[in-house]
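FAQ
Q: What does a multi-component entry look like?
A: The components come first, one per line:
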Amino acid sequence: MKRLLCVALALLVLFSSLTLFSCKKDEGVCIEEYTIVIPENADLSTKYSAECLSSLLFEKTGKTVGICLDSEPEREKEILLGETSREESQISLALDNGQYTIFTSEDKIVLRGYEIYIGSACYALASAYGAISGDKIYTSKLPSEPCAYTYSAPNAYSSVIFMIGDGMGEAHIQMAEEKAEFSFIAKSFPSKATSITRSLSVINGDASFTDSAASATAMATGYKTINGYIGIDKDLNPLKNVRELAHEQGAKTAVISTDLITGATPSSYMCHDASRDNDEALTEQINALVQSGAIDYCQGDVGDELTTHTKTALNQISQNNSAFFVMIEEGIIDKKAHSKDAQGVIDTVKRFNDAIAYATQFTLMHPEVALIVTADHETGNLVPTTPGKYYFGSFNHTNKNVPIFALGAGTAELNEQKIENTVLAQFCARAYSSAPFGDSTVYE
Ligand SMILES: [Zn+2]
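Then the predicted structure of the entire assembly, as C-alpha cells:
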C-alpha cells in the first residue's frame, strides 16, 4: 500500500514538472500596457463599466489604464468591453440575464455581460482569478474560452448608495422610457420591491399624502413623522439618521442633490428641525457639519452635473476601502410633476438614470455595497391613458406606493417585499450597526 502511494506520488511530481516545462512561463505584463476599448456607440452600462474598471485597476495597481473607442486604431494589448468591433469580441455564447463572460484570446482580454452585468465581468478581471498582482497582469490565469458565469451578491454589506427620485412613481419612469427612448437601468436590478410612503400625518388622518420632509425623515431615521418635520419625531425629539449612524461608526458620508442642499430630502439626512422652510436653521446645521468634517461630501443644486458629483463622491468616500453611506437625490422630478410638465419629468428621470447607471457599475465592482433606488412619494397622480399618452391627475403628491429597485450585497432580502418606507432606513442602518434602528410600530 505504502509503495503504491510512493509510485503515485512520483508520477504526480513527474507530471507536474512536465507540465511546467511544456508551458511558457507567464512573466506578467505591466497593466499600463493595456488599453480598455469600448464600442463607439457604447450604452451607459458599458461606458461607465470602463470608467469604474479603470478606477478599480488604479486602486489595485497604482497604474492608469486608458480608455479608448473601438473606432481608434487597434493596439496590441486590449481589454475589450462589450460588443466592440474587434473580432475577439464577437462570440457565439448566449448570455442570459445576470450572466457575463471573461476570457483571453491572444493579447486581448474579452469582457462581455448581459446589460448591466458587463460590470461583473470587469470585477472578475480585477479580483476573481488572481490575475492581477502588483502592477502586473498574468493573463494565463484567466479563462481561455468563453463560458457563461452568473452574478451573485454576498449577504453582508458595509456601505450603502441610497438614491431617491423625488416624486418618481412607476408611471414617471414608464413615460420617460417611452418618450426619451432609453431603459431605466434600475429596472434590470435583481430585486424589486414596493414602498408605502404615508407619513404619520396621513396615518393620523390629518393629511391625504406625505410631503418630502416626512418621507425622507422616514427613510433616513426609520420613524414616521409629521409632514414638514425634518429629522424629528412627532414630539419634536431629534432622531438619529443613517448618515449620522454611519459617520459615528467611522464610515465616510455624502449627500448630493439636484435640489438645494436645504431641500427637504437632503436636509433630512443632515438636520433636525420642526420646519422644512426654516432655511436659516437648516443652512446653519449643514454648514456646521461641513466645517467640522462630520460629513465628507455635501453638494446641492448640482443640476446636470449629477453623475459627475456621483462619480467624484463615490471615488472619494470609498478610498482605502472605507465603508460609506451616500444619499443621492434627483429632486427636480417632483417640481416638474407639480407643474404637470411632462417634458421636464422625462428630462429629469433621464438625468437620474445616468447617475444610477454609474452607481450600478460601481456597485457591481464593489461587492460590499448595497444600492437602493427608490422615491419618497408619487407626484402628479400620473397615469398612462391611451397607448403613448399620459395624464397628470393632480398638481400635488399622492399616497400611491412607489417602486424600490435594489442591487448588490444584502439586497436579495428586499425582493418582492411591500414595506413601509421606514424599513429602508433599517436596512441601511444594518450596514453600520447591528443595534435596533428606527421604529418597529406596525401601522394598520
Ligand atoms: Zn418629495
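Q: Is there any commentary attached?
A: Sometimes. For this entry: The chain has 13 helices and 21 strands.
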